[in-house]
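Running this now, will post back.
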Amino acid sequence: MNYSTIYINDCVVQVSSFIKNEGVSEYNFIIHTTVPGTIREQISSLHNAIRDVFNREDYRNVIPLFKRYFVRDINIVSTILSEETEFINDCALSLIQQPPLDGSEVAIWIIGVTDFKKDSLYEHSYSHNGYTHFWLAGAYSNNKTTKEQTISILKEYDSTLIGKVASIKDNCLRTWFFIDEIDNNYKEFVEGRKSYFSSVGLDEKTHYIASTGICGNNGKNGSKVSMDAYALLGHDKSQVKYLYSKDYLGPTYDYGVTFERGVTIQYGDRRHVIISGTASIDNRGNILCLNDIKGQTLRMWENVSVLLHEANADYSDVSHMIVYLRNQDDYDFVERMFSDKFPNVPYIITLAPVCRPGWLIEMECMATLPLGNGEYRNF
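Update: finished.
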């Protein structure tokens, strides 16, 4: 993985790139602003930086697939973005109230590639070399309870996939669930997800889906949970393998939740690794290093490392990291730890309580490594 940092006026753009001279190149951008102004001024600064970067020769051919805005006040940002059609219609747009902790009001993460073509199969789907990549953002429900909303979101998503000869069981590889007031609503969310998964044959004998379940608000009245997701069509089932690292991390179903620790997708010219939200946990589901932010961070890093190792990857293959903190007061210390250990990897640290009150920190990441398998088509 190649890393670079671009300074544009009052913005810092962290870039990771997996470059193929022949074939698809991949990019991740995390854009921060240092403008000490209003939310509107900060968004304008971020958008100007994005225009600048995507007009540069190195990135002119990059096609955005997925974009997430991490914001402090989702209602104000939603109003501003409604005027910015250039930025809300170009790809799947995830907008979530998870304040960046660098002092700004807004930060942006973008996934982009070269050579993909927009596909008519779904609203935000892209095709290349016989594969279709479908990104979903901001799915939510108006049902009454968190459990009912979770089931409704998954059912509607699955119905959309089934309508195109796919399914959540066979094609969805990654989900993000944002649960408002997570300490109160997480239990019902877990029950809803487990109930729907069981109804479609997702269980401990088959598999689950790589996922992050984290505190976040989508700004919709009455919404207690929302979902982003990534699905792949056109692949062989043997291209997908799940990660367990059972010496460090026990199966999630042992303590009542239903997601995979990580997943790899093998292509002819590369391997993708998706690591779910990972915290300081042992192989019996216990929280380690209670009330110790340093200890929890170190154990979290270790858990992610062993998952990457199971996929023949390491931190040098990581394209980006998203870090979630329960307590804002821990930010300065955690920022120093991350900047010392990962000086080049794009990352963002947000205020977003983890699903158990005892967890102070959680992280997720993705990686790409040049480990191909000629049995399969290139990415």
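The chain has a mean pLDDT of 96. More later if anyone needs it.
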